[in-house]
Design brief:
The chain is mainly α and 212 residues long. The protein is built from ten helices and no strands. Among the domains are: 43-116, Cytochrome Bc1 Complex, Chain D, domain 2; 133-203, Cytochrome Bc1 Complex, Chain D, domain 2.
Length: 212
């Protein structure tokens, strides 16, 4: 028995060491999700790269179908996340995918901080008098808030967004062109005929604006 115990201890130690090696190797093999915060985005560098973005997203941007969304005062984290998804192919766009595939993570950080700009200090008040407000409060406010700003990083700001763009996005979630599990579960219970009213509700609040 005495001779058996040291052998058992050595075997246990060897097993733990092997487990640690395997766990470390698995951890190293797992892809890491790039941070939108670190390294910090460079506004000046982003301004230079954003000139091509402003072709569609600027004040005098070329018309597109669907319309290009407003990005000024959009969440920095959301712009970065969207560019990541376009680059990986998780999010589809014949226009955005080729552009995003040429960007590094740092390019995306730079663009995101430049395009998002400065936030306003006071959020708008909800238009609770509108009939669609009850639907907003019941289905949408959990994530997007009563006026479309919400509080979660990576979540798009809808406040003041182009109504045609919002309506198109709702339709895309419904038909599977956009693949967010959360949004698809929400829109399946939303009547398509209410898309225009939902889009109008968020667009009439003031926050987002076209980039200069």
């Amino acid at each position: 028995m005495r001779s058996f115990l040291p052998s058992l201890a050595l075997a246990s130690a060897a097993g733990l060491l092997a487990f640690a090696v395997v766990a470390t190797a698995q951890k190293d093999a797992e892809p890491t999700v790039p941070s939108w915060r670190v390294p910090k985005g460079d506004v000046a560098r982003g301004a230079g790269r954003a000139q091509v973005c402003l072709t569609c997203h600027g004040v005098n941007g070329a018309p597109s179908d669907p319309p290009a969304p407003k990005l000024r005062r959009q969440r920095t984290s959301y712009i970065f996340k969207a560019l990541q998804e376009y680059r990986s192919g998780e999010r589809k766009s014949d226009i955005m995918q080729p552009f995003a595939q040429e960007l590094s993570d740092q390019d995306m950080r730079d663009l995101a901080v430049y395009l998002s700009g400065e936030l306003l200090d006071v959020p708008p008040k909800a238009h609770s008098e509108l009939p669609i407000y009850r639907r907003i409060a019941r289905e949408c406010a959990w994530c997007h808030g009563e006026t479309g700003i919400g509080e979660f990083e990576g979540m798009p700001v809808l406040t003041g967004q182009d109504p045609t763009y919002i309506a198109h996005a709702l339709s895309a979630y419904r038909d599977g062109a956009r693949t967010s599990p959360i949004m698809r579960s929400v829109v399946k219970d939303l009547p398509a005929q209410e898309d225009a009213a939902l889009a109008d509700y968020y667009s009439r609040h003031e926050w987002l604006e076209r980039n200069k």
